[in-house]
Amino acid sequence: MNTPMRKVGIAMLVMVVLLLANATYIQVVKADDYRTNPRNQRVLYDEYARERGQIVSPNGTVLAKVEKSNDKYKFTRTYTDGPMYAPVTGYYSINYGSGGLERAEDDVLNGSDPRLFVRRLSDMVTGRDPRGGNVRLTIDPAVQKAAYDGMTKHGYTGAVVALEPKTGRILAMVSTPSYDPNKLSTHNGKDQIAAWESYNDKNGKNPMQNRAIQEYYPPGSTFKLVTAAAALEAGKKPTDKIDTSPNTKLPGTNVTLENYGGEVCPGDTFKDALAYSCNVPFAQMAGELGKDKLNKTAANYGIGQNNLTVPMKVQPSTLGPLDSPGALYQSGIGQRDVRLTPLQDAMLSATIANGGMAMTPQLVQSVLAPDLSTIEDYTPKELTGTPVMSSENNGILKDMMIASEANTKGGGKNPKIQIASKTGTAEHGVNPKQTPPHAWYTAFAPANDPQIAVAVIVESGGNRGLAATGGSVAAEIGRAAINAKLGGG
């Protein structure tokens, strides 16, 4: 063989090897990714040939079901109270794949989960039409409705999350504005496209963004629960005196940090500082604590975890770099680079309600077979295994939150239910002083026997403008969710 022929032969051999390597990569390495990709239409067509499982609430209310259709797809996915539960259920669409729980639990719902193998085999042997498994949620419909109604009646943009403190079960997950997944599950292609385009309008409010877990925000004064916990663990007492000055300079700068409204703190103790949400003492506390102590306490609350799923993936919360004394001052009051998801903000209260131990949040209570028999139940799990603070200090912080609630204005208070809470009014935007603040409220109740913890964020103060506060805007919604759970609504 002459040299040119040898070179051609080697080149052809290399190309064959490359083709084989590429085929192996696609068919073996990336096979699962392509199969589960929501844009994989072939998989969807195959799935529509079998009856998809249901998504149900704990009391048996069917939130996502299928109905027989008269076209080639055989079944149509339908949603009960679609916009209210869209952040939970997600969507299932021929053109656009799936999102939310529909995607996270797709293997169960379409029947391909390994836990359903015996039932699939039985269907093959008996000739029965294959069916998917069912998913039972932890959601409390009454709490979900109260939270959703509270946000939508005012046209607020934001989110509400409610948790069961002892177990981490998610009792409500609301994100507004929302969308109707029924418009994406229809078999009318034009209607699907029109709905998708309207939901993804670049000039719109992004209703398909689940603000409860996919978005994070500066938490404002609700973050003082983290700073307070760290201070208590460092030896600070609730009766310790504080700096009541209306403002203080950030270390190493000429920038002034002020109490809300630029006023003198009405009380002179650490407990008063939380009750009246005074910025100056909490900024100074964060500076004294330092980066390591603040980061450690935050981590025990779950802040910074980058692998949390519920089972949808949760955007990690963060404290930022804390790279200067001034940054510590600002971060101690929940500003600067601190960012929390509404879920994480609810976990602050839930952790204190649970004696200082953070629990792993979870949206799925049970995986059920097509005949509704239980395949697997959710078991409560500690999130980090390390308590945020001692039992004694946790009790002190709880009492401080009770005092904070007593000092918080806003509607929806029920004298029969004792609530422990913290509000937040968070600056944001390019010109924070000229931008309506985010309004926050995080709480748990009953204070001495906690059954629910809740967090509410109303973006940019809702309709209250620059005068918005957590107490005047968000607190009423949080209390409505609590009342719905405890029978006080």
Report on the architecture of this protein.
Helix 8 packs antiparallel against helix 17, helix 11 crosses helix 13 and helix 13 crosses helix 14. The chain is built from 17 helices and 15 strands. Strand 11 and strand 12 form a beta hairpin. 38% of the residues lie in helices and 15% in strands. It has 489 residues and is an alpha+beta fold. It has a six-stranded mixed beta sheet. A five-stranded antiparallel beta sheet has the order 8-7-15-14-13.
Question: Would you summarize the structure shown here?
Answer:
The protein is α+β, with helices and mostly antiparallel strands.
Quick tags:
489 residues, alpha+beta, six-stranded mixed β-sheet, five-stranded antiparallel β-sheet, 15 strands, globular
Main pleated sheet: 6 strands, mixed
How many alpha or pi helices? 17
What strand line-up does the widest sheet have? Answer: 3-2-1-6-11-12
Residue-averaged pLDDT: 92
Return Rg in Å: 26 Å
Kindly state the percentage of residues in helix: 25-40%
Strand portion, in percent? 15-25%
Write the layout of secondary structure elements.
Elements: H1 3-29, H2 31-36, H3 41-47, E1 55-56, E2 62-68, E3 75-79, H4 82-89, E4 91-93, E5 97-99, H5 101-104, H6 106-109, H7 117-126, E6 134-137, H8 141-152, E7 158-163, E8 170-176, H9 182-185, H10 189-199, H11 224-233, E9 247-249, E10 256-258, H12 270-275, H13 279-301, H14 325-331, H15 342-353, E11 364-368, E12 374-377, H16 391-406, E13 420-426, E14 438-445, E15 452-458, H17 470-486
Parallel strand pairs: 1-6
Antiparallel strand pairs: 1-2, 2-3, 4-5, 6-11, 7-8, 7-15, 9-10, 11-12, 13-14, 14-15
Helix pairs in contact: 8-17, 11-13, 13-14
